[in-house]
Amino acid sequence: MKLSEQTDVEILQAWRAGSRQAFGTFYDRYGELVYRLALRILGNTQEAEDLTQEIFISLSRNSTYDIKRGTVATFLSVMTRSRAIDRIRKTRSQQQHLQKWEQSIYSEHDIKNLSLMENASLAERSEKVKSALAKLPEKHRQVLEMAYFDGLSQTEIARALDAPLGIVKSWARNGLIRLRESLQDTLE
Amino acid sequence: MKKSYEKYPEEWVEILAGYVLGDLSTDEVTKMHQLIADHPEIIAEIDHLQETLAMLPLSLSESLPAADLRDRIAAVAIPFADAQLLADPLDPARDLLMPTTKRSPFQPKKFWKVAKVGLGGLGAIALIALGFDNYQMRQQIANNAVELEKHRQTIAMLQAVDNRMISLKGMGAIPAASGSVMIAPNERTAIITIQNLMPISQNDSYRLWAIVDGKKIDSAQFRPDAQGNVFTKVPLTQALMQSTTVVITIEPNKDIPEPTGEMVMKGEV
Q: How far B6 CA sits from the closest chain A CA (Å)?
């Protein structure tokens, strides 16, 4: 079977067994996604490349990824975000709730559909998520992005947007719920 | 048919979203515990909200990393083949050895679902913490077992009778380097051990060439650790098995047919 026809899991196993070609296929599938997220959070190409490398090294060892616990794309997103935010935290005050949030994603994250990513290409899924986000009211989207990509607490967001905390909370929650509704087909 | 997210009152779903976003107030935490106790199946909705959040990075516009990042990562993130899988990793015959990806009859996901439903009354947060710890612990025990097995295999490999050793001596830029290549034909492995290598740029790696009939054949690629040491197992190539002379050069991280860099180590049987 050609590498391009193999599932992520098979390719990951071949890479971990030392296959250079399997690494290449895996990198071509996901390298850009990891880099894209790292760059968005860290805001610096050098650091984003550095983190991308760190994530791939970590993935090449057996310690962190359990195939039964979710798609590769989602796993990589959670890991990249978590490590990127760890990095920016070094220059920012700690926010306890963020840690809880990440931990809950790590622990609860338990996706059944392993073939999800293999069925829809990264580009197709990107388009779906982009159009779902575009449908959100501006503030809802903005608050979600500030929390997710900038690692800001809702109190910090409320301050930055000069809006009451209760409103910010409601924007974020409703934004997430609407997004989930738009992405219904991708999730179930 | 009602979609799953329409099954629950809006107020409930908002609490679940707040949980996923990490912004629940104390009162809401209590409410959420009650919700999960009364409707354990609601956990599936939490899963969906978490997956949704984890999809946000897909919305970012394309930004391509430097073209050479792939090669740089390849140089450091391709593990050397495990002892039991030493044949060429791309050899089709090896597929027989590859673990299958089919799920075992015991599915952790189902198990956790059932466990969560059964214990719903304890409250999701406590459960999540518990699940996380258990998961980490099981993972750690599994990792330790794997590591131990790898060490056992290495020791057995080093003790085999028909092994032969090629001593390596530093030259040129790194006269203080020394080491060896142990050829273990039974295991189809070569073990490279070197000390006092100099640090090199991220874009480069050390390359071991086996000399056969005057031709230099690419046989391994590696980078030293921060102390300048290398201890690594590589699949034994035909060339390495035949050769009595090897050389090491510093090369850029890409496929090259023959050495381009200065020779920094040499070894003869």
A: 9
Quickly state the pLDDT bin for A98 (edges 50, 70, 90). very low
Find the distance separating the first CA and the last CA of chain B, reported in whole Å.
76
pLDDT digits (tens, 9 = 90+) for A33-72: 899 999 999 988 999 999 999 999 888 875 455 554 557 7
Q: Which residues contact A111 (CB under 8 A, 6 or more apart)?
A: A69, A70, A71, A74, B47, B51
Q: Which of B97, B123, B99, B103 is nearest to B30 (CA)?
A: B123
Rounded CA-CA distance B12/A178 in Å is: 14
Given a contact cutoff of 8 angstroms between Cβ atoms, the answer to whether B235 and A18 are in contact is yes
Residues of B in contact with A169 (CB under 8 A): 18, 23
Assembly ipTM: 0.76
The total of other beta-carbon atoms located within 10 Å of residue B9's CB is: 9
Q: What sections of B119-256 are H helices per DSSP?
A: 124-159, 238-242
Q: Report the alpha-carbon distance of residue A92 to residue A151 in Å, rounded.
A: 10
Judge: A52–B73 Cβ closer than 8 Å, yes or no. Answer: yes
Q: Say how far apart CA A125 and CA A81 lie, in whole Å.
A: 18
Give the Cα separation of A140 and B23 in Å (integer).
Answer: 15
Q: Which helix (H) or strand (E) holds B13?
A: helix B10-21
The three-class DSSP label of residue B160 is coil
pTM for the predicted model, two decimal places: 0.51
Q: Which two tokens stand for residue B173?
A: 């830029």
Cα A122 to Cα A74: distance, rounded to the nearest angstrom: 11
Please give the interface size between A and B, counted as residue pairs whose CB atoms are below 8 Å apart.
Answer: 223
Q: Please choose, from the candidates B151, B174, B190, the residue with its C-alpha nearest in 3D space to the C-alpha of residue B224.
A: B174
Q: Please tell me the distance from the alpha carbon of residue B39 to that of residue B4, in angstroms, as a whole number.
A: 13
Pick among B28, B32, B50 to test the A interface (most A CBs inside 10 A): B50
Q: Give the orientation angle of helix B10-21 with respect to helix A165-182, to 10 degrees.
A: 100
The shortest C-alpha distance from A154 to chain B (Å) reads 8
Mean pLDDT by 10 residues, chain B (269 residues): 70 90 82 82 82 88 87 86 43 39 44 51 53 54 57 68 85 89 84 89 88 89 85 83 91 85 89
**Cβ B69–A53 below 8 Å, yes or no?**
yes
Q: Looking at chain B, which residue has its C-alpha nearest residue A27?
A: B70
